[in-house]
Every structure is written in structure tokens, then in C-alpha cells.
Amino acid sequence: MWRGGKGEAREPRMTGMAWPAGPGEVGRLLAGTPLMARELPAFDAGAAPGAPGELFARWLAEAVAAGVPDPHAVTLATVDADGAPDARVLALRNVDVDGGGWVFATDATSPKGAQLAARPVAAMTYYWPARGRQVRLRGRVATAPPDVSAAEFHARSPRSRVAGLVARQSEPLGSLGEWTDAADAAERRLAAEPDAVPPGHTVYVLWADEAEFWQGDAGRRHVRLRYRRDADGGWRRGLLWP
Ligand SMILES: Cc1cc2nc3c(=O)[nH]c(=O)nc-3n(C[C@H](O)[C@H](O)[C@H](O)COP(=O)(O)O)c2cc1C
């Protein structure tokens, strides 16, 4: 828990916080909600492909086939200039299967954009409950050239482009009416300038140095396979204790 706004010194704020005495209503709800108590697929790590991009593509396709809602929703973790962590859910836009690159897009002027400018490293976490599968990625983040970012924006639905043109992501909003007015203005702008692109709109690639594939098991015999990128760009892989 941190005190202070943008640019202010951050200190832990722990005063007045007592450790919860008993399980409480929420604790009881959680205790009564079983985790991964369902039939889950087996994972033969020995037969996994040599590169993590290939295994990711396979697991993603299987998540889609299993009806996982929003299988492209991913938690992206970044660090700010002070080293404090931050995380939020984004939409995965593409994967460079052979190169090991995971593509996402956002406004470079957003908090996460500023964090990536200061420290171009990130971690991504996927969880596909119907398959009991987690994928974790860590690595460096690169920014795509402006023409790639513009093309990605042009390929979006009109609704998504209107939302992007409103911009000002994560700035304090006075009222929902202000947002509606800005969205209406963005809609008019898009009608007049169909090629408009918000200046901050940016495509990023997380080039994974490390990728972990985690297959959950109802009996807690989880299987974990980690890939690490070699100095020569190849991949080494090995199992991890669950
Ligand atoms: C399912 C889902 C998909 C999202 N996709 C994106 C996205 O692709 N890009 C984006 O900037 N924000 C996306 N968001 C909103 C982010 O979670 C976040 O609220 C916003 O980017 C501001 O983050 P920041 O303040 O850390 O910069 C998505 C949220 C959800 C729940």
C-alpha cells in the first residue's frame, strides 16, 4: 500500500492496519470455493516443442476451443521509475511464434507507457481456468515503429478507435458527462478524419527471455515447464518443482 500521487515520494502506509482476526465472511466464501476441482488435461512436458511461442499458440488455440472467455486477456506487470510494481489486464494482439514476441498496444502517455519508457521490461501472466493452465513470460519490451502502430490502430473497430482517440487514459475524470462529451467529439473527428491516429497509440512487443507453462492438476500434481533464452537466441528448457 503506497501513499502519494504521481511524482510524490512513496512510503508504505501501514498504520491502523490490523491483521484479519479470523476467516470472516470473505475468508469463508473463499475456503468454500474449491480451486481447480475439475477434470484437467494432462501435459506431456517431454513432448513439448522446442520454442515457447509454439507451445503458447497450441495452448491458446486449445483455450479458445474450450470456450475460455477472453482467452487473450493478459495481466501485464511493469515497474515504475521508483521500482514499485504495477499490473493491469490488457488484450494480447499477436504473437511472433518463432521469435518469442508477445504483442500488445496502449497509449504511450498512460501510466504503463511511462513505466515502460523508464524501464522497458515487463512480465505477462495468462490463466485459462477451463484448462487449468497458466503461462508466465518475462523479458524486454520494444516499441514498434510509428507506421506499425498506426496500421494496428486502423485495423480496429470504429468503437475501439473512438475510445482510443479520447485518450487521457488513467487521468482523473470529473464526471461521466465529460467522458461522453469527449467520446462524442472523438466520434465526430473520426467521421471527418477516418485515418486519425492518437499520437500516443503504440504497439509494444515483449521479447520473452523466460517463459513458463504451468498445467494444474486437481490432485495438486502440477507440471511446470520453463524455457530460457540462450545467448545465441535458442531455448533451453527444464521442469520446475511445483
Ligand atoms: C479484458 C481487458 C482488456 C483490456 N485491454 C486493454 C488494451 O489492450 N490496452 C489498454 O491500454 N488497456 C486495456 N485495458 C484497460 C487496462 O486494464 C487499464 O485499465 C488501462 O490500460 C490503464 O492502465 P495504466 O493506468 O496502468 O496505464 C483492458 C482491460 C480489460 C479488463
UniProtKB/TrEMBL annotation:
GO biological process, one term: pyridoxine biosynthetic process
UniProt domain Pyridoxamine 5'-phosphate oxidase N-terminal: residue ranges: 61-175
Keywords: Flavoprotein, FMN, Oxidoreductase
Amino acids binding FMN: K112, Q134, Q169, S170, W214, R224
Cofactor or coenzyme needed: FMN
InterPro entries: Pyridox_Oxase (IPR000659), Pyridox_Oxase_N (IPR011576), Pyridoxamine_oxidase_dimer_C (IPR019576), Split_barrel_FMN-bd (IPR012349)
Biased segments, Basic and acidic residues type: 1-13
Pfam families: PNP_phzG_C, PNPOx_N
Domain Pyridoxine 5'-phosphate oxidase dimerisation C-terminal: 203-242
Signal peptide: none
Listed Gene3D superfamilies: Electron Transport, Fmn-binding Protein, Chain A
Molecular-function GO term, any one: FMN binding
Enzyme Commission number(s) of this protein: 1.4.3.5
Region (Disordered): 1-21
Protein name (database record): Pyridoxal 5'-phosphate synthase
Source organism: Streptomyces hainanensis
